[in-house]
Each structure stands twice: as structure tokens, then as C-alpha cells.
């Protein structure tokens, strides 16, 4: 599949001098957009070559679309394709050019102008034009893209609506990069609502369907941070449920997820979660490797404040190989060593506090240290002691 797509990209880039049986001018814009979406589905599946192919195809499409006869955009399929191209990472130059055409292109004016406003970061105009649209009424290949954008526009003030729109995006464009992006974003919105059952379901969906996506590493990092920050794994009954989610993916993905979770949990002070996740990561990590070293760091760092032998924790921290740790983990190691040293430091025995009367009797010390209020307080305490002694005597 990817080889055929790369061949098509090459033919498109070659222009009219390409093979006579595949002239680029014969490929209508909406067909080129389908090719783009197929490439993006490959990206969602983890195909790194598709990322480079997408960049090349977007450049080719911009040139072909800008050079197209204006009559081409009177075909609604091509006009909708131009909107999809714009929302899929295409250059805004095309839509600016198309919006200036007379007669207008064969697509809803608010949809076209709203798409341009969105990628130009003119959020107020994008909201005004795009939010009233019903994504379900559009062809699926465009409706899913619009629903995804709409969810991003409302997520800050209306999480419930954003989640519903992301559901629409997933259902309208299953198996595509739109579904991958919608599912990835929805997981974290649901986490904010505290709906653990829904969070579990969506997380399992993402890890099973898109665990190898080009964007899976971003998902793992945000997933671990959300769990630690929001306390999703806090409590004896919750971590086993979380473990079940993570263990639904392949071993390599599991190890990466447990490491990310352990790191985030240490940083956010969720020490029980950190130790449990580090233990799971260590069980999956090759002995002596960098991942085993990271798991050891997170477990040791989380052990400082749980009553363990601080001397033993310090030995474990000192035995870690810095060269096998990244910059962030090296900083974490330095912080853990400093905290362990402070916890293990034996405090000096404080000097006994002398009574005010003793200090006051020493003229040099009394004048410099004892205030009138202190003398009055000492006298009042002495009086109180005498009264208490008298009251207790037979």
C-alpha cells in the first residue's frame, strides 16, 4: 500500500512529464485528497515513511490546486476536498485564493472561511463560522475532520460538548488519523471528568487500535501525567484496574507506559503509584539496560519518604549509571540524592534552653537578649507556679 502511495506522490511531483498513462492533470483534487487521507491512515498505523510522503504530497497538492482552472472548484467534491486539505495541514494559500474566486466555490461559505480562520489561529471567527455547522450532515470524509476541529474550539469551556464532538469524529472516520487524534484527545478530556470507567474503555481502545501510531509516544507521556496529576491511580482498588489497561498492549508498549507513569508519579508525589509502576516496568526491562536503570531510579526516589532504610536507598541511588539516563532523569536523580541526604542527616543535639532568670542575671547577656516583656512573663510564670504549688499543698 505505502509503495503505491509513494509512487503516486512521485508521479504527481513529476508533473506532465510523468508516465503518459498517469498524467497528473487527470487526477481531480478530491482524488488527491483521498490519497492524502490514506497516507494519514498509514501514519495512524505507525508507518514513519508515510510522514515524509505526506509532507511531499501536501507540497505537490498546493501547486496543483493553485494552478487548477477555477471551474474545477465548481464541482462540490473538489471544493469539499479543498476544505479537507486545509484542515489536514495544507497551506492556507489555497483557501485564500479560492475564497477570492467569482463565482464562489461550491461549498458552504462559512465552512470554507471557518477552515481558513482556524488554521490562521483566528479563533473567534472560526468559532462563529464553524460551531453552528452540523458535522453529521457533511460527507463523512469531511464531517469527521470538522467535528475534530469543533471539539478543539469548545474544549476549554464545555468539556461535555467537546467529548460528544470527538465521538462524532471517531464514528464518522473510523481507522483514520482523525479517529486516532479524536480518541487520543478524548481520553484526556474524560480523565478530567473523573469517569474512570469511560477513561479505561477509551484508553484500551487507543492502545489496542493505535498503540503503534506515530503519535503514541505523545499519548503515553500525557497519559502518565494525567494519571499522576488527577490521582486516577490513587487507592488500592484503582491501580490494579490501571495495570489491566496498560497490560492490554504489547510488552514493549507496556514497558514504555509503566516507565512514563512511574516518572510522572514521582514528580507529582504519588509515591505508591510510582513504586508499583516502576516494579511493573522493571519486570519487563532487559537486565542492565537503560529501562531497567530508569525503573530503579523511580523506585528508589519513591522509597525515600516511606520509612525505608535511608542508607540503603542512598546506596541504590549512588549505584545508578548516569550515562544510561536522559537529561530529565539525571535531574531527577540529583534531586533524589539531595533529598535522601537531607532525610538521612542526623540533626545536631540542641543546646538546653536556659531560664530567663539565669540569662537575665548575666548583665551582658541579659541586656542584649532579655526584653522587658520576657522579664514580665517570667515573673508571671513564677507567680503562677507558686499559686499552683500552694493550691496543691494539704
UniProtKB/TrEMBL annotation:
It comes from the Bacteria. Keywords: Signal. The keyword Signal applies. Residues 1-19 form the signal peptide. This is Putative chemotaxis protein. It comes from uncultured Pleomorphomonas sp.
